[in-house]
Amino acid sequence: MAEALTILASVSPGEVRVALLRGDRLEEAWIDRPARPDGVGDLHRARVTALAPAMAGAFLAMAGGETGFLPESEAGPVRQPIAQSVQEGLVLPVRVTRAPQGGKGARVTARLTSAEQARAAAAPPGNAPLLLARGPDAALRLARAHPRAEIVTDGAGLAARLRATYSPRPVFDEALEAEFDALAGPEVPLPGGGRILVHPTPALTALDVDAGSAAGARDPEAQRRVNEAAVVEAARQIRLRHLAGPILLDLAGMARKRREALAEPLARALAPDRLARLLGLGPLGLFEILRQRIHPPLHEVLAGPLTPGLSALRMAVREAAARPGRRLALVAAPAVLAALEALPGALEEAAAAIGQPVQLRPDPLRSWARWTIEEAGHGG
């Protein structure tokens, strides 16, 4: 009997974290910041600004000064040279199919559904780029992908929108909180010992298996067992972290012949991920994986001082719920506080949940991670 699927959506100031659980095992992890959506699924009225035949596509001006790229394969019902599909100055509706990355604009398609075409036709007249509709957020995407899954959220507004079960208590328990926190870090412990180290770079992501104590164990099969666990967990971490582009997996030790024996288990572990493809074992003895990018990887979402700031607001709301009436202050590095102030709505949502604003106290001597929630009126 298949294990039940559950979607948990944890709503906090400036952020919505969404988990898909199969039984009690985390299958997918998403972090949305509604004030800064990644744009995937957005419907735009855009204007062609330049044809790029050498790149087999065209550049588009989009709402908010953003740039999009329309591949010639997505410019019309039949693929043909881009100059035969669009011309400079043409205004057309498009949908974002891939989030921007590395300074490059979003990837878009002009192949729209009839509902999208009708929505574009009903837009106000004009030739200026215009955002016509936002794409679905993570909770809605998961709900559509898994219509039989139970959906539980601690956000009243989200519960009403998704027709989900509302929980007055936080839906993430300590174990799930810890698992989400771990997705921001480079180290993944393996059952039975050993670990995977995750090293993202602009060009590729390297996954390095460290056998730990098994590397020097007398049991010749100890290293094999670590690597067998590693290929399964590596596939899971690739999916959970939304890693994309070229991915190299370096197993711990083992001759090439023994590594080749793990190609089939790795392919099987990757199979449920429709975006990932195992290319094979390369000449350097590294497994080569290619995963299509649609949404930004979690290491991009979680980079910078905003992430600890939102964690602090989440903690402040919980402390206020446990001990109502206290006036709270957040003491943190100036960069953390500046990031919160720059995120529309986050501090206002925290104030609404707590019943009064959170005081912000900059401490230039603190690192980003060393924030504290204190009672207002006391030193930090």
Automatic annotation (TrEMBL):
UniProt cross-references to InterPro entries, sorted A to Z: NA-bd_OB-fold, RNA-bd_AU-1/RNase_E/G, RNase_E/G, S1_domain
All copies of domain S1 motif, residue ranges: 41-111
Keywords, ordered alphabetically: Cell inner membrane, Cell membrane, Endonuclease, Hydrolase, Magnesium, Membrane, Metal-binding, Nuclease, RNA-binding
Top-level taxonomic group: Bacteria
Record's keyword annotation contains Hydrolase: yes
Pfam families for this protein: RNase_E_G
Keyword RNA-binding in record: yes
Cofactor: Mg(2+)
The name this protein goes by in its record: Ribonuclease E/G
Organism of provenance: Belnapia mucosa
